[in-house]
Amino acid sequence: MGARPRKVSILSPDLIIKDLEKYRQLALDCGASDALMIKASSLVVQERVRAKCSIPKCAEYGTNQHCPPYSMSAAETKEIVKDYTYALVIRVDVKPEYAAGAKIHECYIKGKIDEAGRYRLLGKEYKKVFFVVSEVESRAFYDGYYLALGFAAGSCKNVFCFKMDCQALGRGKGCRWPLRSRPSMEAVGFDVFSMATGLGWTMYPVGGRSEPEEVPACSLVGLVLIV
Asked: What is the DSSP letter of 85?
């Protein structure tokens, strides 16, 4: 579906608030479990979040344009956030059996698909976050918020280019999915757990040693800086 562009102009506070609610509803219509508009000043950015990408080193570290060391630093992210007033935070709920347990961890580390297809299903949920984020960012762009910036969840390489080299790292080549691919929030320093908990969302750390039945809730989180 096409998007009719709005003339770039100084927008009234009332119109901005109306647009923000429109983007929140768009996120829900695109598949988000919840979406909240917040003040950008409440976003939490810390260098130690990005450090977790390398200690212990993530399997995707250095493999694509949107993961460290190629992604923006936390210091750069902090400076960018200062220029925004509002942001949309997006949550996509995931079944714990798609994300927890030794089998899922092995799939992630070794690049295998488990027999039950849970890892493939988790990949679809990650892809949903990228979709919602890019759709909201695009709509905001055509409405005149031409500096809207989106951040997703997880590695774009794992989601879109699983078991393939990142084409964007090659000289003279671009990303295979430039309109969908985005850095994860953690890759640029956003403290997702702290921010989501502050919004009243229930968050649990999930990994290879946590079994699905031990995880009451599991969610992926994305973000769009609007204006």
From this structure: S
> pLDDT tens, 100-153?
888 777 776 666 666 567 767 788 999 999 999 999 999 999 999 999 999 999
Contact 50, 187 (CB under 8 A): yes
Q: Is residue 13 situated within a structural domain?
A: no
In a domain, 209, yes or no: yes
- Degrees, nearest 5: CA angle 116-151-11: 140
Domain count within the chain: 1
Segments forming the whole domain that contains residue 75: 27-225
d(CA 118, CA 170): 31
Query: Does the residue 22 lie in any domain?
Result: no
Q: Which residues, 6 or more positions from 117, have their beta carbon under 8 angstroms from its beta carbon?
A: none
pTM: predicted TM-score of the whole model, two decimal places: 0.92
